[in-house]
Fold:
Amino acid sequence: MRSAADAAVLEWAASEDRQVFSRDHKTMIAEAWYRVAQGVRMPGLFVIPEDMPIGQAVRELEMIVLASEPDEWRERVIFMPL
Structure:
């Protein structure tokens, strides 16, 4: 999915009931909000800063997984760190 269009990534995530984690600040955020505005299922987008070390991102994502339920993130764009 690395080279797929943002819309395709979000559509796949919705069909698989998966959240998306991305460093794409330029286009992915707008596409996620477009889906929400259109009333199309969007299971959640987590935006990771490009300068956040991968180890920190993994630890933060682990906390999210352990401390929440997937339904809490539907139709939301979340900017990390929390």
Summary: The CA atoms of residues 43 and 71 lie 8 Å apart. The beta strands are 20-22, 45-47, 77-79. Helices lie at 6-16, 28-38, 54-67.
